[in-house]
């Protein structure tokens, strides 16, 4: 019983003397057994089969429930309240404007900020690669 199958693979093995009428008869049986399925058929010629015919059928999706649509996730926005950190410093967490994240960091903070940060950490100006210094200018 292949009723309810979503996909059916059919392989017909026979000698090269296989007639189109024989393929049609096999496919009518498969189509009758699985009317709603997507059917893919292939054939293999094996001269050792003589007048014989071997049909291999693989049905997929039998008894599987239909996929349910996943509901779209609900977008939740944080209020403007400030929350306290759980660490020992107990400073308020800064509110983040996520709309700004569309703009690359280098454009938001400026290129010069990276070079200034390096200089403030004790790095000599000439220890900063020239391509970084030029980008900052």
Notes on the structure:
Helix 3 (112-120) packs across helix 4. The protein starts with 6 loop residues before the first strand and ends with a helix. The protein has helices at 20-33, 105-109, 112-120, 130-136; strands at residues 7-14, 38-45, 53-60. Among the domains are: 7-60, 60s Ribosomal Protein L30, Chain: A; 98-136, no CATH class. It is elongated and about 90 Å long. It has 137 residues and is an alpha+beta fold. 26% of the residues lie in helices and 18% in strands.
Low-confidence stretches: none
How many H/I helices? 4
What is the CATH architecture assignment of the domain at 7-60?
2-Layer Sandwich
- What would the CATH topology of the domain at 7-60 be? 60s Ribosomal Protein L30, Chain: A
Tell me the helix content. 25-40%
The major beta sheet can be summarized as:
3 strands, mixed
List keywords for this structure.
single chain, 137 residues, 60s Ribosomal Protein L30, Chain: A, 3-stranded mixed beta sheet, 3 strands, 26% helix
What layout of secondary structure does this protein have?
Blueprint lengths: L6 E8 L5 H14 L4 E8 L7 E8 L44 H5 L2 H9 L9 H7 L1
Parallel strand pairs: 1-2
Antiparallel strand pairs: 1-3
Helix pairs in contact: 3-4
């Amino acid at each position: 019983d292949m009723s309810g199958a979503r996909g059916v693979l059919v392989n017909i093995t026979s000698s090269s003397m296989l007639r189109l009428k024989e393929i049609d008869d096999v496919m009518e049986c498969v189509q009758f057994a699985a009317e709603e399925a997507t059917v893919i058929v292939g054939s293999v010629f094996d001269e050792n089969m003589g007048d014989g015919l071997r049909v291999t059928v693989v049905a997929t999706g039998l008894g599987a429930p239909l996929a349910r649509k996943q509901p779209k996730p609900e977008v939740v926005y944080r209020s403007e309240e400030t929350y306290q950190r759980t660490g020992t410093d107990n400073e308020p967490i800064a509110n983040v404007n996520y709309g700004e994240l569309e703009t690359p960091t280098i454009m938001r903070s400026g290129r010069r900020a990276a070079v200034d940060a390096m200089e403030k950490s004790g790095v000599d100006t000439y220890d900063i690669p020239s391509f970084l210094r030029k980008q900052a200018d």
